[in-house]
Design a protein that fits this description.
The protein has 124 residues and is mainly β. The protein has one helix spanning 2-17, and strands spanning 24-30, 36-38, 44-48, 55-63, 69-76, 85-91, 98-105, 110-112, 116-121.
Length: 124
């Protein structure tokens, strides 16, 4: 019985090891002239300005990566092919300004990151 439990624990540990790292996706939102941004460099960032526009620029990027990366597969509004950073258009008043990433490491392991959210509000 003990041998079976040890074997199952070892198998489970190996199975979950692929996603047990610490990299995270964070965001920046850039307010237009005279506006303000909060939370840049965290997983919840926001900008407010009175430009009366529909969108502003922003970016999602990886933070706290501890291993060599083979490939990054971005999800959400981050439509980049690879790279540790992805510039985006952040739509005003949209709940869909989110991104996450699947990181494939050179040593054969992988990691699915958190989901970061960028918010933008403007003068209308």
């Amino acid at each position: 019985m003990k041998t079976t439990l040890k074997a199952l624990t070892l198998i489970a540990g190996t199975f979950f090891a692929g996603s047990a790292f610490s990299a995270q996706v964070v965001c920046d939102v850039y307010a237009k002239g005279g506006g303000h941004s909060w939370g840049n460099g965290t997983q919840n960032c926001m900008a407010l300005d009175f430009s009366f526009g529909n969108s502003t620029s922003g970016r999602f990027y990886l933070k706290d990566v501890t291993k060599d990366i083979e490939e990054v597969r971005w999800d959400g509004i981050a439509r980049c092919s690879g790279g540790t950073s992805c510039n985006v258009t952040v739509r005003a008043y949209s709940g869909g300004n989110t991104a996450s990433a699947l990181i494939l490491y050179k040593d054969g392991t992988w990691e699915r990151t958190n989901t970061a959210r960028a918010s933008y509000e403007t003068g209308h």
